[in-house]
Amino acid sequence: MVLLENDSFLTELTRLFQKCRTSGSVVITLKKYDGRTKPVPRKGHSESFEPADNKCLIRASDGKKKISTVVSTKEVIKFQMAYSNLLRAHMDGLKKKDKKSKSKKTKATQ
């Protein structure tokens, strides 16, 4: 997994969306990140770790390529605006659900 800066993450995410436009999917996950690189110790060992600030870990994958970034609280609003614009631009290829008409349901129940 490649840890990228916020701007380069958005450009790579754009490339992932364009590559998977006709077939395939992109999986995006968001997670609270406290800066730990090692697992939490067991109950017997007490090690105090206080994160400096809250961060968000964002990962994206198309099944073959994985990218990730860490967004700090100072950069959240700027990143969220750019991220939402990117999602709006690339969510146009979604398939619409087939809606069943109500008239068929009412006739079936009578």
From TrEMBL:
Q: Which GO terms describe its cellular component?
A: cytosol; signal recognition particle, endoplasmic reticulum targeting
Recorded hits in PANTHER family, A to Z, give: SIGNAL RECOGNITION PARTICLE 14 KD PROTEIN
* Pfam families linked: SRP14
Quote the protein name from its UniProt record.
Answer: Signal recognition particle 14 kDa protein
Q: How does it assemble?
A: Heterodimer with SRP9; binds RNA as heterodimer. Component of a signal recognition particle (SRP) complex that consists of a 7SL RNA molecule of 300 nucleotides and six protein subunits: SRP72, SRP68, SRP54, SRP19, SRP14 and SRP9.
The protein's role, per its UniProt record? Component of the signal recognition particle (SRP) complex, a ribonucleoprotein complex that mediates the cotranslational targeting of secretory and membrane proteins to the endoplasmic reticulum (ER). SRP9 together with SRP14 and the Alu portion of the SRP RNA, constitutes the elongation arrest domain of SRP. The complex of SRP9 and SRP14 is required for SRP RNA binding.
Which keywords belong to this entry? Cytoplasm, Phosphoprotein, Ribonucleoprotein, RNA-binding, Signal recognition particle
User: What would you give as a GO molecular function for this chain, any one?
Assistant: 7S RNA binding
Q: Which domain of life is it from?
A: Eukaryota
Family, per entry: Belongs to the SRP14 family.
Q: What is the lineage of its organism?
A: Eukaryota, Metazoa, Chordata, Craniata, Vertebrata
Q: What organism is recorded for this protein? A: Stegastes partitus (bicolor damselfish)
Q: Name the Gene Ontology biological process terms.
A: SRP-dependent cotranslational protein targeting to membrane
Can you say where in the cell this protein is located? Cytoplasm
Keyword Flavoprotein annotated: no
